[in-house]
Amino acid sequence: MTEDAASHEELMTIVANGQPWNVPRECTIADFLGRLALTPGRVVAMLDGVIVPRERFAETRLREGCRLELVTMVGGG
Question: Looking at residue 17, which CATH number applies to its domain?
Answer without folding.
Answer: 3.10.20.30
